[in-house]
Write a structure and sequence with these properties.
By secondary structure, this protein is of the alpha+beta class. Among the domains are: 2-24 and 216-427, no CATH class; 530-625, no CATH class. It is 26% helix and 26% strand. The protein has an 18-stranded mixed beta sheet that branches. The protein has a four-stranded antiparallel beta sheet with strand order 26-25-24-27. A hairpin with a 5-residue loop joins strand 12 and strand 13 (152-159). Helix 13 packs antiparallel against helix 14 (579-625). The chain is globular. Residues 1-25 and 505-539 have low confidence and may be disordered.
């Protein structure tokens, strides 16, 4: 590893003193984002700085203030460091805070499952709901369900440990346990046994198993978002001085940073969103190199927590260079190569510059003028589009124009960002996907939070004038605070959150278990008959033990049925001859899953009714004898 690191050292690096001096007084942007890594069905996004919903894009970097709506037919997945957060259908969630230490989510309706692989002592994961705040305390698998009316939250801990806080009471939930948070103004927290998994959870567990077995973790950190897809879509090979590189399986003529689009995301500014299912890690970490066999991605030195970059490219600029192109006002770029530093245009500290470059460049002092860009001279490496297509976040490949080698050789380098002011369409991306939006009452539903979330993002229309004064440069902290003071609409206190202080209590439930009424069908696993030995002390011990065995037997049979169905469906889809056949098979399998879930729910309901009648009869007999 030391040899590899020395290979990536860059001599005599000097960052312009003015950049460093201007930035050291401000907080650095987060070193991580939440990648939208899976979209199934209809999934919509509402960016933090606007109030308009748009179709969600695969690989979109979700950050503080963004909202997601997964329609009834959809599923979605977010990857944040080593944590995967998955959303079921009919789910509305947003990000209250996301930085290097905190992931704070707001869930107003629906179901969320979280797989936490690692959790440092300084890190926290919090899921806030209308009925309480849930802290995920250890690595594990967790699920949180909020019903349609927003007056009930069900927490299930498959592994790990969580703490649910409502109305000032903290309740510990350990592995294979659950809890029901009932009510809004006054919350009751009741313990229960963890029910069986359902189709949604089984899908989550399948995704986890796939991610746990990939070989790419030999070459990159698990904290590098997007490593999970590399095995499936490419291969690793040795490449001399570059070490081990990853080669994507792509068509001839493929070029990095061409199959996707540019969007504006604060606080980083112009951000590349790639269209390929694997298109996250290779475009936000590492560098690209052109080998005799084609393009290869060079991840560089393995570090524990790689720092996210909005795009690792160099833009071409200056007057007169585009005279030979077929479009006016073109915007052009090419991928950075190994040992070439990324110098952010957004405001950062020297420590940030070192961290974002550390896998390829050891930064001490940087002077931007002494860099030789190796990919600049690679045939076809430079991509150019009309300015309006760039600003409008249109797909690049459809509008890209050829750049003659002689033209690009004479063009000056403008830096690592396009010095162009964004427009509203740079933020609200127009897609072909069906855009569904949740009811306003759900979006505006307040949640309970233990931690104070980050302030509401200043709206884009408030930022826009200032952004036009310094094209392509995101606002620094001082400018944001000034706008926040001038425009009351951007308040510091979050209107969608009400704070609660936790008072630790005994893990034993303080109130009897309530029977759950009108529970949505999608919350099948929490419908299992709860254990009630503490809630109803008059129940005969022998009867309670028999009931527990009956529930365990039914749950085990249901789990086996689901596991068998999942394996059979995966095999059928894998052997489909065409994509059309695979789509039809997938639809058929989904229908079978629904039927299986409905049948199992009826069996759970029947067992619960039988056991309730037996408990009532036993309790009545005990009362008569007394």
């Amino acid at each position: 590893m030391a040899v590899l690191q020395r290979r990536y050292e860059f001599r005599a690096l000097t960052l312009a003193a003015a950049i460093l001096a201007a930035s050291t007084a401000f907080a650095d942007p987060p070193g991580r984002v939440a990648r939208l890594s899976f979209i199934g069905g209809s999934v919509s996004l509402r960016p933090a700085s606007v109030d308009e919903w748009t179709g969600a894009l695969i690989n979109y970097p979700v950050t503080t203030g963004d909202h997601l709506w997964v329609d009834h037919d959809g599923r979605a997945e977010l990857q944040v460091g080593t944590t995967a957060v998955r959303l079921a259908g009919s789910t509305e969630a947003s990000v209250l805070s996301l930085d290097d230490r905190t992931l704070q989510l707001r869930l107003t309706e629906g179901s969320v499952a979280a797989r936490v692989r690692t959790l440092g002592e300084e890190q926290s994961i919090e899921i806030d709901t209308p009925n309480g705040s849930i802290d995920l305390l250890r690595p594990g698998f967790y699920r949180v369900d909020v019903n349609e009316s927003g007056d009930q939250t069900i927490v299930t801990v498959r592994s790990g440990e969580a703490e649910a806080t409502g109305a000032g009471t903290a309740y510990t939930i350990r592995a294979q346990e659950g809890a029901v948070l009932q009510g809004v103004d006054v919350t009751e927290v009741n313990g229960r046994a963890a029910g069986p998994t359902d189709v949604f959870e089984d899908w989550c567990l399948t995704r986890d198993r796939q991610a746990d077995t990939v070989a790419s973790t030999r070459y990159v950190s698990r904290a590098m978002v997007g490593y999970e897809d590399l095995d499936q879509y490419g291969r690793w090979q040795a490449a001399g001085e570059y070490g081990t590189v990853w080669v994507p399986r792509v068509n001839a003529g493929w070029v990095p940073y061409r199959e996707g689009r540019w969007v504006w995301i604060d606080p980083w500014g112009w951000t590349w969103v790639d269209a390929a299912p694997w298109g996250f890690a290779p475009f936000h970490y590492g560098r690209w190199v052109y080998l005799p066999s084609g393009w290869a991605w060079v991840p560089g030195t393995i570090v524990a927590r790689p720092v996210y970059a909005p795009a690792l490219v160099a833009f071409v600029g200056g007057s007169g260079w585009h005279a030979s192109l077929t479009v006016n006002q073109p915007v052009a770029w090419f991928p950075l190569g190994p040992r070439e530093p990324f110098i952010p245009v957004y405001h950062v500290s020297p420590e940030y510059v070192r961290a974002v470059n550390i896998t390829h460049v050891t930064v001490t002092n940087v002077t931007v003028t002494n860099i030789t860009y190796v990919n600049r001279s690679v045939p076809g490496a430079v991509t150019a589009v009309p300015r309006d297509a760039f600003v409008g976040a249109r797909p690049v490949a459809a509008v890209a124009v050829a750049v003659p080698r002689g033209t690009i050789a004479q063009a000056p380098i403008a830096g690592t960002a396009a010095l162009i002011a964004p427009e509203r369409q740079s933020v609200v991306v127009t897609t072909r996907a069906r855009v569904a939006a949740p009811p306003v009452t759900i979006v505006e539903r307040q949640v309970v939070a233990r931690r104070t979330p980050q302030p509401v993002v200043v709206p884009f229309e408030v930022r826009q004038h200032t952004l036009q004064e310094h094209p392509g440069v995101p606002l620094d902290d001082a400018a944001v605070q000034s706008l926040r003071a001038q425009h009351p609409v951007a308040v510091n206190q979050h209107p969608l959150v009400r704070a609660v202080a936790a008072t630790p209590q005994s893990p034993a439930p303080q109130q009897p278990q309530r029977q759950i009424q009108n529970q949505p069908a999608r919350i099948a696993p929490t419908q299992a008959t709860p254990a009630v030995t503490q809630a109803t002390p008059a129940v005969n011990n022998a009867l309670a033990e028999r009931h527990a065995k009956e529930r365990a037997t039914l749950d085990a049979r249901h789990a086996q049925e689901r596991d068998t169905a999942v394996k059979r469906h995966e095999q059928l889809e894998a052997h489909a001859a065409t994509e059309q056949d695979r789509a039809r098979m997938h639809q058929h399998n989904e229908e079978e899953n629904k039927q299986l879930e409905q049948r199992q729910q009826k069996e759970r309901d029947a067992l619960q009714k039988k056991q309730e009648n037996e408990r009532k009869h036993d309790h009545s007999g005990a009362t008569t004898e007394r």
